[in-house]
From TrEMBL:
UniProt cross-references to PROSITE patterns, sorted A to Z: MIR
Organism expressing this protein natively: Chroicocephalus maculipennis (Brown-hooded gull)
Name of protein: SDF2L protein
Annotated coiled-coil segments of the chain: none
Pfam families per UniProt: MIR
Residue span, MIR domain: 27-81, 89-144, 145-199
InterPro entries membership: MIR_dom_sf, MIR_motif
Claim: Protease is one of the keywords in the record: no
PANTHER family, per database record: STROMAL CELL-DERIVED FACTOR 2-LIKE PROTEIN (PTHR46809), STROMAL CELL-DERIVED FACTOR 2-LIKE PROTEIN 1 (PTHR46809:SF1)
Residues spanning the signal sequence: 1-22
Primary location group: secreted
Keywords: Repeat, Signal
GO CC terms of this entry: endoplasmic reticulum; extracellular region; protein-containing complex
Length: 214
């Protein structure tokens, strides 16, 4: 009888350890403060911005998609919707509100009720100064698990207008020839899946873990 109780106790402890382990963030989770590139899985281009303004619509800094994997203007920093809401090194949860700040220009990924120049969907721009813009810079990470994993394809849904960050393949001419239009679409589909690629991912210990070279 004593042996049976001991076996039962060991089984319960093993089960509890397994449940606790399931709540821990996976080592491959994307974390707050990380700097990364985002690949649109349908069109194989990376989210990009630069000091080129739209010639129509809002006239704000344009956001495009580029095929090159080594372009320094494709890095974005993961931040919270406000100070302290996404502490450095904390895994980003599915359903969490974030900002994506363009590293080289300090502007946030943004959308609003202007038509995009090529597809007439919703314009996506880069807005603000030194990482500070407004409430239209907030996006929800949509994924299927507990945390945003580096290997997962995820969607970004805009809080203010409820569109999804998307690419459908339209290409610009001069002065950004060949770059793709990035826009907002009202429906979830295969044009709005994104995957974390090259970057520096911050561990919970706050030590930088290189996923690829900057």
């Amino acid at each position: 009888m004593r042996g049976g109780c001991r076996l039962l106790t060991l089984l319960l402890l093993a089960l509890l350890r397994g449940l606790c382990r399931g709540r821990e963030p996976a080592p491959g989770a994307v974390t707050c403060g990380s700097v990364l590139k985002l690949l649109n899985t349908r069109h194989s281009v990376r989210l990009h911005s630069h000091e080129v303004k739209y010639g129509s619509g809002s006239g704000q800094q344009s956001v495009t998609g580029v095929e090159a994997s080594d372009d320094a203007n494709s890095y974005w920093r993961i931040r919270g919707k406000s100070d302290g809401s996404c502490q450095r090194g904390t895994p980003v949860k599915c359903g969490q509100a974030i900002r994506l700040t363009h590293v080289n220009t300090g502007k946030n990924l943004h959308t609003h009720h202007f038509p995009s120049p090529l597809s007439n969907n919703q314009e996506v721009s880069a807005f603000g100064d030194d990482g500070e813009g407004d409430d239209l810079d907030i996006w929800i990470v949509q994924c299927s698990g507990t945390y945003w994993e580096r290997e997962d394809a995820v969607r970004f849904k805009h809080v203010g207008t409820e569109v999804f960050l998307s690419i459908t393949g339209e290409q610009y001419g001069h002065p950004i020839r060949g770059q793709r239009e990035v826009h907002g679409m009202p429906t979830a589909n295969h044009h709005n899946y994104w995957k974390a690629m090259e970057g520096v991912f911050i561990k919970p210990s706050m030590d930088p873990a290189k996923h690829d070279e900057l």
